[in-house]
């Protein structure tokens, strides 16, 4: 069964691994919208994940743990990881390479400001808005209390859902527009693992609507996740 490597070492790449010199201007393109193919669905990449434990067991609410605390601690952890990945690829995501915040197919994400106005903006600007919004929320003691015994606010789940939607879109944009750069960096096993973890956690705790995950459903299925969750 060739082609499917076990990591830890992301340097165990085969001959198909891209090198930095392979990132030519024509490959970067504008949003890669002209590319119909989805390289992240190719079997040799889909199977590259960090060996891990049972994701469903990992994401389920552990016995004796408060559900809001579990959601809050995972929200913080996912934000830190995804922000880090986004930063690692930020030099490739500019207003000229990504004039719109796009995802697979014709998906274009618009930012809704505090006045409810929808703003079409570049992907890096959307990412700035999203990460700043999440950062502000996570550091708001009224929303994510850190003191023992503090109560979570009413509607906490809706804020968590919004954070997960923004994090999901961030990964969708990376897969859609920056997968070649992800391959060059050797980041794809980590990306697949993080995406799987986020998706399984979201499904298990009802954080994302099927309508929002639909543009990435082909990858979710290819990664073999999302089964049996709806029945559990
Ligand atoms: Zn971009």
From TrEMBL:
Gene3D superfamilies: MOB kinase activator (1.20.140.30). The keyword Zinc applies. It comes from Mugilogobius chulae (yellowstripe goby). Residues 25-34 have a biased composition (Low complexity). Zn(2+) binds at residues 93, 98, 173, 178. This is Uncharacterized protein. It comes from the Eukaryota. Residues 1-35 are annotated as: Disordered.
